[in-house]
Amino acid sequence: MATNKKLKWSKYSQLIVPVLSIVLIVIFNLFRDPSFFSIEITTNNAGSTVLTGNLVSILNGASELAILAMGMTLVTAACGGQDISVGALAAIAGSVFVKVLRAGEITPVTIALGIVACCAVAMVFGAFNGTLVSVFKIQPMIATLVLFTCGRSVAYWINGGATPTVESPLITAIGSFIPGVPVPTPILIVVLMAILIGLLFKFTTLGLYTQTVGINQRAARLNGINTTGIKLVSFMILGVCCAVAGVIAVSRLSLINHETLLLDIEMDAILAVAIGGNALSGGKFKITGSVLGAYAIQALTITLYAMKVPSTDVKAYKAIVIILIVVIGSPVVKAKLSQVWKNIRSGKAEKEAAV
Predict the structure, then answer these.
(1) How many C-beta atoms lie closer than 10 Å to residue 315's C-beta?
(2) What pTM did the predictor assign?
(3) Is the CATH number of domain 12-308 1.20.1530?
């Protein structure tokens, strides 16, 4: 019985930091402005009934980050390092998506072809990053620095150096609302991606193998696990996540801006993984924690904007808060808190025994 309790505690303890972060932000906002999380039902420009409010804005605004955090978690777990090229790769994928759409009339079939094309291209670039890491043994952050540096230039070349628009009700529906559906489409896409990844882990051994490779690569190899293949797959899955995030970002504005599309989202994706309780050195991971970390970051951003903090100062305030969150969730602090809790429990046990 005690062993089962320890296993359950171990299973969910990783979510303490992201959940606590969200709870603290919620409590702060409830004291600051009780109506902060209120949800309203309004009618948008298309005449559809939709949900609005800060809570909806948080869930909607964090969509791209949450999707990237899912893929970043796998790469971190398998390789013990982070991919800093996800924003650039999303720009490349977005450019391919726009290129396909502009080749003809924008229809559901064209959009599907565009999504498939940008996912395929992103997987190729992901495999390139994965090859540098798994075959040539280059540290992930250094290996992905190549694409981080040149990725947006590649995206710029794909559309001939232009920033074309792709105006269509179908594209608008992907980036905002599907007519008749009150929930923003990006939120639904996050749910769909989470389900797909959950099914992938349920019906394959990818999750177990990824964790095993991250914990001890040599032992994994001796047990017959293709460590190179697992790392490649993790980067390719991250490529698909980048493609989906790029499609959402393009659809929000109905255009592709290579220089600003998901700019600096790499750092937020890494922070989401860290806040999610995942070890940045690889090994045990929980994608749910990373998604919650993404929403915690977005909630903090929306809170700062609601407090009228200048946009130029938001990053500084975010850095201070995130440092506190990451330090609280660090192994050293966790070990200290665990020891304090054990001492408290042992003290209670001694008093009960004395009575």
Answers:
(1) 13
(2) 0.92
(3) no
